[in-house]
């Protein structure tokens, strides 16, 4: 066999450690390097497997000897170590690309700027309820690589971010879903929308006739991309604006799904019976419904699952109703578009908690909704100048706060019966919190202490 192939894993979070365990199982010599500290439970995983690793810095010499490198999606291309690897033409892969080599399962891959997690979880819920032997991975839960190493699933539902797609080359989605493309992470794409859109369209690379591509027909950026990219798969669009011959559409508050390639009976369901409410969730439900129909599940099964699903934590999560005021935790909204979706689905007047680390946000798209729905903005972040500048003409009250507790107390005093207090920050969380989960959990704790 000659000597072992030597692989380096950059980043020792869930995806990196999963990739390391799989690489070892597949006979590679493995070295894991993290520029920051490694969490104790991941160190334990690596120690138990006798995989060598380092933290708080990179040993360049050891890394640059690799035959290939699996990198965490969070490491940008402009990181010095990535530049050096690129100069030496050492292949850099995402964990999904690497793990995909070692699995024969059918891949259902979901991407988009917003709604990925919800649609991935809903799709998984429907397929699991139908009795499929299915894994859930990507941006959610246990890493894909770890599951490929230790489980044996026939199907995977994978939530795929643009950062993952950027380092995917041979991987093929049997079913690809593209929900929407709106400005996000543009700092990683030279501030060019078309670069970001091209990255999202990588979800269809390597697809063949007989594979499936499901997309939103109402999204302007997707429409542009369809003209530019060759589609080999069977296509099923979904729309709430127009009736479609093949795919999903809305008519008289009913979702209707027709798949003519498949000669199946139509699927119909009233949007009032969906577990997930709000316009954007009609899209998410349509996308999941088409996947289920492509896999020829029974209409009854699909309907029942779409009615019984409970949403993921920190995404439009109802926390409590206190004195007639609803408190909603949407901490996962780390971009302006997510906040737009959240506001759009709120009934009545809102006290909006916004702010954190601003990724070059353009707040213009929120202006109309803020004018019509928001009675006060509570800023939760170290630097709230841009929020004040964006909305000072649209809202009477804008207050600064520096903790979840303070934000909740003030929002409660500003709200009246029938209002909603919505935490939907439109920003990253790491100025005051560890991550969006920490921000959401502190918000929920503060609400429960009212």
UniProtKB/TrEMBL annotation:
Its EC number is 6.3.2.9. It catalyses: UDP-N-acetyl-alpha-D-muramoyl-L-alanine + D-glutamate + ATP = UDP-N-acetyl-alpha-D-muramoyl-L-alanyl-D-glutamate + ADP + phosphate + H(+). One of its GO terms (biological process) is cell wall organization. Residues 314-427 form the Mur ligase C-terminal domain. Residues 110-291 form the Mur ligase central domain. Keywords: ATP-binding, Cell cycle, Cell division, Cell shape, Cell wall biogenesis/degradation, Cytoplasm, Ligase, Nucleotide-binding, Peptidoglycan synthesis. Transmembrane segments: none annotated. It is found in: Cytoplasm. The keyword S-adenosyl-L-methionine does not apply. Pathway: Cell wall biogenesis; peptidoglycan biosynthesis. The keyword Nucleotide-binding applies. SUPFAM superfamilies: MurCD N-terminal domain, MurD-like peptide ligases, catalytic domain, MurD-like peptide ligases, peptide-binding domain. It is an enzyme of class 6 (ligase). Cell wall formation. Catalyzes the addition of glutamate to the nucleotide precursor UDP-N-acetylmuramoyl-L-alanine (UMA). This is UDP-N-acetylmuramoylalanine--D-glutamate ligase. The gene is murD.
